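Tutorial, part two.
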Amino acid sequence: MADERDHILILAGLGALALAIVPPAKADETDHTQVSAIVIDQTQVGTVWSEMELDVLDGAPEVVSTSTAVGNAAAGALKSGDLDLDVEQELLGAVGAENTVTGGMAGNTVVTTTAYGNSSTGGTWNGNNSYRADQDAYGDVSADTVIDMTGSGHIASATTAMANVSVPEDEFGKNGAFQIQNSNGSVRAETDADLCCNGHSATYVTTAGGNAVSSVGWSSANLNGAVQTTAAGETISGSTDVYQTYGTHVQAATSTFGNSATVHNEWGYATLGREGSELYQENNSSIDGQTYVTLDNWYGSASSTAYGVGNSALISNVGSDTGLNAIQNNFGDVYTSASFAGGTSDGGHAIVNATSIGNAATATLCNYCGDASLQGSTIQRNDASITARGTVTQGSNGSVYGSATAVGNSATYQSTGH
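Running the prediction step on this input gives:
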């Protein structure tokens, strides 16, 4: 956590954002440790909607367009000391964000569209973080980006829609976090870009997910657990559709998932799930990710990638003992499609990749000293169809590399040296 961060708690719910200063820490009489105890309970009933429309005049040097919609948002952040944070969130209404950029030629263009049903984060620096989040999302969540311009020198677009997001973190202490996340609606993220050209680079990233946990720690113990479920009969979908008459270094990527739990730690014991209290993930929703890239003329590199997974568990650590204990059940079909249609090229290369996985679990330890251990267990079951498709239509002069990969269950534990 940054040194300059004050003892601030951010609360957002029912369409309003309130800022409250954390009260003075309470002294524990037994060990005289300062502890800030915070409880947040939020319910969002109505629709939450954001819409941004921006028309670009020719010659604009910088274009930045942002649209953000969040049903419930809670955060607890301490500059130092122990934090005890308990968050409960319920989303009943729909959440949507739209972002439309039209017009002429610009220098640099940045477009960001974000829609979260429930969002919670908490952490401290030089202290212990005791964190719990209970999140239920019943309403649909959507994010839509439209770019219809003459062109731009550099283009960076990010479109994200997620039902539940939880982010615990800690530095120089101990992080103990547990999350319960239920995604009961549909989630959709779409990017549609139509341009004459870009001068230097263009990157389009689209992400749609049901439940996401992400924890980061440094020089601290990082212990994480979660129960994540998505509902049957719902769809989690993402699509990226790019057309340019002239494209230079164009990258387009779509990522979709039902449940995702990720821990990145350095120099401290870290675990995602523990024996007898495993990370539990159950995906019942259909997962659909598609990417389409069409470039009449293209220069340098180009890529079209689509990634979809029912359940994903990932932990990485540096220099200390690491554990991954997970139970993953996937009952939702996973489908990805990536396509590239290229005309005349200057001799550059294009990459097309479609990857679909039912359950994925990965534990990685970078073992600098050679005495840290890697342990754990993973139980996986996939009852659904897993499909990956790649399509390439190639013009002249360029090289294209394509791959399509479909995997029911994947589990990897690896330790690497330095």
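The chain has one domain: 8-416. In part three we will examine how such features are distributed along the chain.
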